Amino acid sequence: MHFISVGAALLYSVASVGAVDLDPNSEDSIKAATKQYAQGLMSFYKGDASGLPKEEVGVFPKPPYYWWQAGAAWGGLIEYTQLTGDRSYVSKLHQALVANYGPENNLLLPWKKDQEGNDDQAFWCLSLMSALEYQFADPAEAAPASYLEVVENCFNNIVPRWDTSSCGGGFKWQIYPENDYGWNYKNAISNGAVFALSARLARYTGKQTYMDWATKIWDWTKGIGIIGDNYAVIDGLDDRSECKEGDKIEWTYNNGMFLHGAAVMYNVTNGAADWKERTSGLLEHAGAFFSPFENATDVMYEAACEIGRSGGKCNVDQLSFKAYLARFLSKAAIMAPFAEDKVTKWLSKSAVAAGKACTGEGGMCGHKWYIGGWDGTTGVGQQQAALEVTQALLTLKKHVVPSKGGEERPSQPPQSDSPSPSKAPEETPAQTEAPPRGPTDNLEDGDTPEAPETPNGSESTTASDSVPTDGPDGHEEQQDSPASPTSCAPSTVTVWVTASTGLPPSSVPTSGLNTSVPVAPPMTGPPLDEFPPEEFEGAAASVQMTMVSWVVAVGGAVIFAVL
């Protein structure tokens, strides 16, 4: 048994891995950082091993990761491939996508009934939408359907679940009544994801039906109060109360999803005033997810679960939410150029801060970007968030405009190892097409606006829902009740110490957001740690030590014994 001081242990554990010193103005620096983050993300992926049952192909291990998160991650990696030219993951992505098309090529998987709600299905669908818009190579071997066929099949499978039996409409979270933990919940992310999908399909295909659905979903969501007058997006409402009660918590990805969809509609309608107002309102309110402390200006954070003692309560799903706000902010800025200056400022500062958090073992990233170092956590969500906030800068710098159907692009995205039946453009999608930017389109520059106040939080009723639907064979499908989620926390003892970095205080900052954590999280994931370690008073940073036997305090110094 050896005794080591905390200071020595800190040097031993983290000094060997330097932080990512990102230059947000350098494409080379951004590409180098994203390559590291992508490698870290894929180190968690085991879904391409030989001999796996079909249920495990193309997804991250469960527990702790749910089906939806793989779909979300693949969308980010599709865009990573096209933005950076790194083709390392093309074959893995092809395999993962095709393996999850489902028997009817609509992303409805009978073997994922316990995990698949409307939002989950829509997240996978949005990733295939990115494959279309960013001209990702078709699978080298014949696939059962094209990307566009799968996306449209998915859309056509979801929209019949629009539920007018309560609240005057809206999508429930869950598809199947057996998933009763979310059957009576009409939530932001299910409606927002289908809204964004409708808008993107309208732009890609030019079909009016998609425009109509986007407008219908927006009108209902705004009218029922999921989107407030101040453009705060709450998590969802309980349809048993006719949507008068629900969960008022705000999460980054809900804001980002609606912001992205509104910006696409602004583009599709050639700068219509109503969609400009909606995009602007959501953009302004997004400022509430930045600048948690005075010395962390413009740094993104998940206000509902990341700050202070609640920081250990972010569940596995919630650890990835910042990834989607980052992605959708950059996409919104391309579709609505008046947002570009504000978005670039936020994402640049956040990407630099994220790089400083990537000093874990092997350069793994933590979750709390505002502390100036690694917070002792690692996982798929942490890697997604660091990757997305950084590669979003490439989207902005290259001004990558998603393509429309039938367009030929002067670029060459990386192809798969075998010839692809896709048209191969010569580079990334074209750098044209967003509405012209004029002096009256620019929002005022300056500090991030103070977010309007939102309603006080309430306990989550469960978390999102979605209305029952016929299965692929035309009959209502039944589903086994899901097992209780289980946590996959590492079996380590964690020592929380104060780092001598002049970091912000541990008190919760004043914010326009409700920062309490709902009793039931807004997704299916379990808490990352049911019994998170308490932080010492005044601690602003944390470092995780493994293989620790016991801890004692001697003369104000913390000493621990390592086996």
From TrEMBL:
Skewed-composition ranges (Low complexity): 414-435, 481-490
GO molecular function list: mannan endo-1,6-alpha-mannosidase activity
Family annotation (Gene3D superfamilies): 1.50.10.20
InterPro entries per the UniProt record, alphabetical: 6-hairpin_glycosidase_sf, Glyco_hydro_76, Mannan-1_6-alpha_mannosidase
Record localization: Endomembrane system
GO cellular component: endomembrane system
Composition skew (Polar residues), residue ranges: 455-467, 503-517
Keywords recorded for this protein, A-Z: Glycoprotein, Glycosidase, Hydrolase, Membrane, Signal, Transmembrane, Transmembrane helix
Name of the protein described by the UniProt record: mannan endo-1,6-alpha-mannosidase
Organism taxonomic ancestry: Eukaryota, Fungi, Dikarya, Ascomycota, Pezizomycotina
